[in-house]
Amino acid sequence: ILDFIKEESQNGKTIIFSTHYMEEAEYLCDRIGLMIGGKILDIGTIDEYKKKTGKDNLYDIFFSYIEKENEK
Length: 72
Known about the structure:
The protein has about 70 residues and is α+β, with helices and mostly antiparallel strands. It contains 4 helices and 2 strands; from the N terminus they run H-H-E-E-H-H. A two-stranded antiparallel ribbon has the order 1-2.
């Protein structure tokens, strides 16, 4: 199923995909919205997130956003 979604996306189709699995999001998505508690914190590409956070994978990126939210 994941390969089918990736293929359809590469063929120009817009896919909205919701997952809790960071590896799936990194593999499938051109743009990723990070949500905590039903609130969208940020939307961007994996490269944009890497530049913003200095982290190299979506799992660590997401947890850096959680830490920022907890500091508020």
